[in-house]
Design brief:
CATH architecture of the largest domain: 3 Solenoid
Distance between the termini: 179 Å
Helix content: under 10%
Number of domains: 5
Protein name: Rhamnogalacturonase A/B/Epimerase-like pectate lyase domain-containing protein
Strand content: 35-45%
CATH topology of the largest domain: Pectate Lyase C-like
Number of strands: 45
Number of helices: 3
InterPro entries: Pectin_lyas_fold, Pectin_lyase_fold/virulence, RHGA/B-epi-like_pectate_lyase
Radius of gyration: 48 Å
Pfam families: Pect-lyase_RHGA_epim
Organism: Neoroseomonas lacus
Shape: rod-shaped
Length: about 650
């Protein structure tokens, strides 16, 4: 009864769940004594309390294998519907597996003090190989979380040349959960392999620090968006040269196989073969990945794409590829961005590559395309062998590789290495949209000034929205206005080998228009249209004009001569006999500034008079009698009218 005195209750030596205990409610004269069973009190006090591994036998001394106690806690939580499993600030040694496969469980640590050895906070210590410490598997484990704890693995090999880590399995495996499992605020100290995720989308990793040796994070068959953010890999375990240099040849920080739409941001790693690696596992490629801020330090291939068909975007990436503690020497064979697969589609906002031994960017395979808005390379081509900042493999078959730059590359300390290698059908270009005459695809100075493409086979320039130049793939160039209303045009026939050259001149020189080409002798034609004339101007007006009274068949040729020769006007054409005429304008005369020299004939060798009507010749008789003779159309006559005989 509620008012039973405590002294009236029966005495007991040990309490069972069904035994009653007095509970006093209130105080003084209003106090009331009530009764409750041990089970009722336990249920009320412990309702929804977090579980603790020490309640299930965990010791936390860093020596005892606490994995069975942790598994016992997990098993108890399975029937309770999950919950939070607390570890407290202790070091727990794990020498056997823990499996979560039925309910969502949160493994809650008490934080940690960063360092190379186990210190304050919650630490998981692993010194035995051949097992996976934590596995999350099956749909029931979705929603599980691991947070606020540190993991340390023992590596007892002497840190000398040839050092290699102990071959531990992944600390955490997320397998076939097909849903979210989260890792937050973890420290991995000297961990060989960190987190594996397969056939489980929506993985979330946030605030991951540590030093890993073979793989930090590896994901495959993630068909829903995963997230990795705030990752910092640094020599927490050891900064020994032999350890970090082993990492530079063997460590892959983040490895992605078939992953769809993953978000990554704030990724940093020091000492690795690759910091972001895309590799095939036979399940597909990485599609539409997004990487925000990325910094790879002392890495051989900071971004390494080996799989085919990878697509994604990078906002900001910086890479550096020195040999660790190598006095500035580059890693042998180092490349900032390396693509070995085919048909990659990669967009990069800002990319800086430092200390690549040969190429800052190396694109192997075929059909790859990189779009880089801003690119800077420092200290590339350190072999001084002419290596280009961007190397594109020649595609013997298939689509050539291409890199499009959004702005001119900034290249420094590259031993005069070129932007792009020769001997390839790939290309590096600055791409632009086609645009239009009033809004060119490439604008210069104003919105309606620049270059645009009127069609897929033409390139044009506009000023103030007016076309001033157009060039077509067929070899036609127009200047001074829109094509068809232009002031100057150039037409290049197919297989052209001869051309016109316009040569400017220095002071006192003479600019020239000349014929050039592979032929030994090349004529030069200036043609008017229709029946119009060709005019040469000087002092602002016509100085010489060429006209034709019909379709030219006969014409005038002028011959220059060598020293001692006589320049001449010569009648040429298709007719056998072509006269040559000088005609003054109006009733005037033809004037010579020197005497005319007439042809000379002997009396016995006169030409036919009928051929040279009204013509003058000079006749001599072989001795001293030399006089002018005139043809009347029948005979040659002396000036006094007597027939020459």
């Amino acid at each position: 009864m509620s008012d039973t005195k405590i002294s009236a209750l029966p005495a007991i030596s040990t309490a069972a769940d069904s035994d009653l205990l007095p509970v006093v409610q209130g105080s003084g004269g209003s106090a009331v004594t009530r009764q409750a069973t041990i089970a009722q009190l336990r249920s009320g006090i412990l309702s929804d309390r977090a579980y603790h591994v020490r309640d299930f036998g965990a010791v936390g001394d860093g020596t005892t294998n606490d994995a069975p106690a942790i598994q016992a806690a997990v098993d108890a939580m399975n029937s309770a519907g999950g919950g939070i499993l607390e570890f407290g600030p202790h070091a727990y040694r794990l020498a056997s597996p823990v499996v979560v496969d039925s309910v969502a469980i949160t493994f809650q640590g008490a934080g940690y003090t960063e360092g190379s050895a186990i210190a304050d906070g919650t630490w998981l210590s692993i010194d035995t190989t051949g097992f996976t410490p934590f596995t999350f598997t099956g749909g029931g484990a979705r929603g599980s979380t691991v947070r606020n704890l540190a993991v340390r693995q023992a590596h007892n090999a002497s840190q000398v040349p040839g050092w290699a880590p102990t071959d531990y399995d992944f600390v955490f495996r997320v397998q076939d959960c097909q849903g979210a499992v989260e890792f937050k605020n973890l420290l991995l100290v000297g961990v060989n392999r960190g987190i594996w995720c397969d056939n489980s989308g929506r993985l979330n990793i946030e605030s991951l620090r540590g030093q890993v040796f073979t793989a930090g994070i590896e994901i495959d068959r993630a068909f829903d968006t995963c997230r990795i953010q705030h990752v910092h890999f640094w020599p927490f375990f050891s900064a020994d040269d032999d350890v970090v240099r082993w990492q530079q040849q063997n460590t892959d920080t983040v490895v992605l196989h078939r992953v769809d739409g993953i978000f990554m941001d704030d990724i940093f790693a020091l000492g690795a073969r690759s910091v972001l690696r895309f590799v095939s596992s036979g399940t597909g490629s990485v599609a539409k990945f997004y990487l925000g801020n990325f910094y790879a330090d002392f890495a051989l291939y900071p971004i390494w794409i080996q799989n085919n068909g990878v697509t994604g975007q990078i906002a900001n990436a910086t890479t550096q590829s020195e040999l660790f503690n190598g006095s500035g020497a580059p890693l042998t064979g180092s490349v900032g961005v390396r693509i070995d697969g085919n048909n990659t589609r990669l967009q990069v906002g800002n990319l800086r590559v430092d200390d690549a031994q040969s190429n800052a960017i190396r694109v192997n395979g075929t059909g790859n395309r990189l779009d880089i808005f801003s690119f800077r390379a420092e200290y590339y081509n350190q072999l001084n062998d002419g290596s280009a900042a961007i190397h594109l493999a020649n595609a013997a078959s298939g689509t050539p590789n291409a890199v499009y730059l959004g702005s001119p590359a900034m290249l420094g300390n590259g031993n005069a290495g070129p932007t792009m290698n020769s001997g390839t059908n790939g290309h590096v270009a600055l791409g632009a949209p086609a645009g239009r005459i009033d809004r060119p695809g490439v604008m210069i100075g104003a919105t309606d000034n620049g270059f645009f493409a009127p069609s897929s086979t033409e390139l044009a320039a506009s000023i103030a929205g007016v076309e001033v130049m157009r060039a077509a793939s067929g070899g036609t160039v127009t200047l001074g206005g829109a094509s068809g209303a232009h002031g100057f045009g150039v037409t290049t026939p197919t297989s052209s080998v001869n051309r016109v050259a316009v040569t400017a001149a220095a002071t006192a020189g003479t600019p020239a228009v000349s014929a050039e080409g592979t032929d030994t002798n090349i004529a030069l034609a200036i043609a008017a249209k229709g029946t119009s004339t060709v005019r040469l101007h000087t002092r602002g007006n016509t100085a010489f004009e060429v006209n034709a009274t019909g379709t030219p068949a006969n014409y005038i040729r002028t011959d220059a001569t060598a020293a001692g020769g006589t320049p001449r006007f010569i009648a040429q054409g298709t007719d056998t006999v072509v006269a040559l005429q000088l005609s003054p304008k109006g009733a005037t005369y033809v004037e010579s500034t020197a005497p005319f020299r007439l042809p000379s004939y002997s009396v016995t060798a006169l030409p036919a008079a009928a051929t040279y009507t009204r013509s003058l010749i000079y006749v001599w008789d072989g001795s001293s009698n030399r006089r002018l003779a005139v043809s009347d159309g029948t005979n040659w006559r002396w000036p006094d009218g007597v027939v020459v005989s």
